[in-house]
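ugh finaly. both done.
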Amino acid sequence: MTFINLPPAPPHIEIVHVGGPTVLIEIDGYKIITDPTFDEAQSIYPGPVTLHKTEAPAVDRKDLGKIDLVLLTHDEHADNLDHSGRELLPLAQHVLTTQSGAKRLKNNAVGMSPWDERRFRTPNGRELKITATPAQHGPEGIEAVVGEVIGFVITDVNSQQDLFYITGDTVWYPGVKMVVDTFKPKYIFAFAGAAHPTEVPVRLTMDTNEVLSLSHASPNSKIIPVHQDNWQHFTQGKMLMDTAFAMFGLQKRLIDLAPGTRMILNTADNN
């Protein structure tokens, strides 16, 4: 009798875009959320740079149920962690963030440096590996001004698939290129919008050109732009992104994740 070793079944994945940088990712029932922001529209966050939220979240925080893991790219900016998002953190089972962020947040927050790994299991026993990735929130040397930022890669250890790359707030720079050279993510959540607060003389996140560069550097990945709307400091949005990808014949590479809509992703084949 001949036995055939079949590859592990791909995970069942559903995603919901809450708004801004906040995405719910469910992998075999294991709930992961990125950069939780749930404050209402017209919220204002004063400081050296005053941020204005223009749109409400598409999903109420209470409707998400118990969160297993928060992937927090950084804690110092309200558009990535607002007041309601902070209230969610101690309710989650695990929180991964920057080393400096974990020291500020304490409680269940665990600090990671780029290329650090942590492993978790879904309810059905699937093993997920979370790798922290480098990010640069503006031009070189910006860390002293805006603080530390990381991204994340989520890998299904059982099927040996890199499922998601969450860029975090970053520009296109060699660190991001290194990530897509190292991993082969099925899907990339590209934090875009060309953020440019009026008090800051430089651009702080990827613009449309740089998201196109990211897509070329990772040609087998589907691109899911997020964090390009909902806040006053974004200078480029969905319409420009859609137009640019269409101009280059790349519209099939782009996934339009409408806020509040639950989408089932196919991890077996991206073609």
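ok and the 2nd:
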Amino acid sequence: MTSHVEQQIAARIARARAEEERKRQVRAEFAKARARGLAARHGRKLRQLAERGFDLAPLLDPYSNATPSASGG
């Protein structure tokens, strides 16, 4: 038989574990929401750039496998 104190300690540990699991789930839900929002913002930005006529992919030289420098050379 466990003592009253041991029972209280066990209950306190169980509550702490349950609270940590709840917090972990909340953090995971927020992370998913942030990822969805970031993907949506990125997609919106790319669509707006395409609508304005910006070339979204850098030019690739198939012979050297390099992109042109920012200075245009």
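summary for the 2nd one i guess: The two ends are 82 Å apart (CA to CA).
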